[in-house]
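Pipeline run #58 for the internal structure catalog. This entry was flagged by the ingest filter as a single-chain record with no existing model, so it goes straight to prediction. Upstream metadata was stripped on purpose; only the residue string is passed forward. Reviewer on rotation: M.T. Logging verbosity set to normal.
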Amino acid sequence: MPQSDNAAARAEPRGIGTSQSRDPLAREVKLLGALLGQVIVEQEGLPALELVERMRRQTIAVRREAGGVAQRRRLSALLDEVDLPAAEVLIRAFSLYFQLTNLAEEKQRIRRLRQRQRRAGRGVIDESLAEAVLSLRRGGLDADGVRRLVGDLLVAPVLTAHPTEARRRTMLVALRRVYRLLDRLDDPRLTPAEDAEIRRALREEISLLWNTSPLRADPPTPLDEVRSAMAFFDESLFTVTPRLYRALDRALDLGRAGERDDEAADAARDSGQTGTRAPLVRPFLAWGSWVGADRDGNPAVTAATTELSLRIQADHVLRAYEAVCRRLMQTVAATGEASGPLRRRLERDRRDLPEAAAQLARRFPRAPYRQRFGFIVARLRRTRLDLTGDPAAAAGVAGLGAGTAGYADPAELDHELAEMAAALEEQRLVRVTYGVLQELRWQLATFGFHGLSLEVRQHSEVHSAAIAGEPAPDVPVKEVLETFRAIGRIQRRYGQAACQRYVISFTRSAADVLNVLELANRSAVEGEAPPVLDVVPLFESADALEGCSAIVDQLLAQPDYSRHLDSRGRRQEVMLGYSDSTKESGALAAAWMLYRAQEQLVEAAGRHHVQLTLFHGRGGAIGRGGGPMTRAILAQAPGSVGGRLKLTEQGEVIADRYANPDIALRHLEQLTNACLLASTPGHDERARRAAEEGSDLLDELAEEATTAYRALVWHEPHFEDYFRAATPIAELSQLSIGSRPSARGASVQPSLESLRAIPWVFAWSQSRANLPGWYGSGTALEAYRRRHGEAGLERLRALYHSWPFFASLLDNAEMILAKADMPVARRYASLAPTVESRRIWRRIRGEHNRSVAQILAVTGRSRLLDELPVLQRSIELRNPYVDSLSELQVRLLARLRQLPERDPQRERLMHLVHLTVSGVAAGLQNTG
């Protein structure tokens, strides 16, 4: 935590890059805390820093007292002396400390990964692509079998704009600057002067962060959200994608060598074959996005918004191609005479682009490759200006020339790149052909001219109303039809891949899918065909999940829809919603419903000879289907993966997984590894046997868990009042986090039923109870053991060790229970002082204790997270600091809620509460 100026000086040994400290994370956290302490003194004065330190020490003392009251009284007395300006300094200090600490932990993740890779030497690390390929070979697949599996592989991460990222884009960008500076301190070649300069720059950046509000003044618009998403495209998605393909290509070399012997495998590693031959891997990443296209409950997303979203994306991706080709223009400096297709292409370039030709001839005489890449840059620039709708910007652009034509489509550009590849190979520059040029072609095949494939989403009731010629709330029929017309215009401008999937929220019948195709046909204007669509039903409620197989059966049996599928290659995508089902029934029951739905959908698709892709609408938090993704993929129902993995990447998870290119690559490797391993007959057979053995047990557990969860959340008459009082739901709903309202329907105080799952989970996270992720689990396990005795416990333990689904289910519950904090949650419960609320609190606390005891009994561990000591330690170290913000939040909520509606102090108090929400989210590294 922040320290005084003298302490800061002591915390900064010279030559930190060459320090022999055995705990670099602790060293960096101490350094950042010390620098923050210096900034606080500079900005607010020494008394402010001393107050922060007193608060820090006192909250630690409260936690160490373990239930006593003396230290809490001292904390209360300390806070009684704190006025609002001082409270704001405390909140900002702890919040910024967490933001900086998170950067240090991110750096430590990379450091550990590299250490593991170095320790593995010529071996492979777990959850890597090399491990996946070798595991497939050892599992009985021959080289052709592995190539076929890789050839059919699809991994499709879909970015969403759901409002769970509590930080402004300004803060995210500033924190990346701090990270880059911190990362430079690890360079052992730093001189003392360079080391000092980096520290000076760190102080400067922290000073700027101190004076930057972490909160948005106004909600972001959908286009703001698009620009934020594209910042991650620029930072990591574009560059990491070919790195992932290269890693799998290299792994396939290793797998082929592994057929022979270890010596051959070592030779394959050393020979560097990848990059000297045609790749064995085709592009298998299919990036998607709902940002700017998800209109379910968001009236700000219109047809015009979606079209503008594609323009923004096209601008980013085409600028990225220009940058690569400009770099190749500088580096591929081989001289000589062009021959064959390359010579003819240059002749056409000089005729079509005379101004660019004159410039390139002066700059690069007798350098045909440099000239050719220069012409490609000119044509890409024109393509960008054409596709982004800014033709006026072309005027005066040096080197374009008045008649410069852009590329008609990505295939035309790839054809030219293929010509370049052949010419380079002819000149024995094969490493360029299959090196950097191959990576550009991989990027082009993945991103086209559109970037991420936009997926439109709308509620089924909106379509039903439009079919009847009636407007739905906030969505007139004209806008529904204009959305389909916009999709058609996007496809004609950017290609079908730019926007072809249409997701139907709350699908309840086959008619909901057919309505979309009917509306698409109605939208077509004279002389234009309707848009080409892949319609994706989304099943998210308990009733829909339980009935989804019958709905899909009915849909696939429709002659008209079957003909539509014939035109789409007999491929059908179905989306499963994790958030609403968990909110409705609890985490344990929802997980089992989703598993059963997967089994049934696989059977339905098989009956109709359809290739099924399941789209998993997982949130970041465990209460919305989150948790470790590798285990979750391996825990899917047999036959449900089949080499195709599609899932949402939501909210704060996007920044966590894709802000750092190295972490992004590792995450994508883990997803691909799990997808491959979950797609073999052997894996499916083992999962099928485990499910047959344990399905009756899960039926029992799910029934008990559902009953317990619904008895509290949906049938307890005073629960909603308790929820609103004991969490900051009303206050965080007013945060300017996302463009979409926090509830369905227009209501000043939405009902619990209309409240979206994201703020529901976010509110419980802030109150430190995390109830949606575990409530009902303890009752279910206890009831099963009571009915079946010692044999029941033994069966639970056996299934935990043999069935990945059951293990993942309990491990996720264990993780969220460990992150919950009942003593702090009790402070929030004190905000609901009625007799009924105290009774509800006792039920929640009792179920938490019961869940912890039962899960430990099944896993055989003595403490939660004993198998994950790094996470366990991180939670233990963070909790006292988060407690400071939680205590401030509880006090501010109490004061805010006592004020009359028009009291002038309300705005100031609400601002401080919102600052605590942002700080607690940073401290817990979790929102909704």
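catalog note: The radius of gyration is 29 Å.
catalog note: Residues 164 and 651 are 5 Å apart (CA to CA).
status: ready for reviewer M.T.
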